[in-house]
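I'm curious: can you give me some protein's one-letter sequence along with its backbone structure tokens because I've never seen that pairing?
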Amino acid sequence: MDAIFPPLALTTPALCEAIAHCLTEDLLSPAWRTHAPKSGNPLAGHCYAASEAAFHLLGGYAAGWVPHVINHERWGLSPARCTGS
């Protein structure tokens, strides 16, 4: 898929805003559906969905991005040069 769809040329704030706009309650796990409203953070619980969206929009592995888990429940991305992949 990365070869068919080249990475988007978005600035970091524009990319974050575009992804945040698409994060909806149906993307949350049942546990986060209960916790998120109490957190006061409208993006709480969306780490995986947001990271996956960014991964693909930025070009994925072909563009040098590597998904990873932080603290067993939080997801993020790193440039491959930072992870040794």
In short: The mean pLDDT is 79.
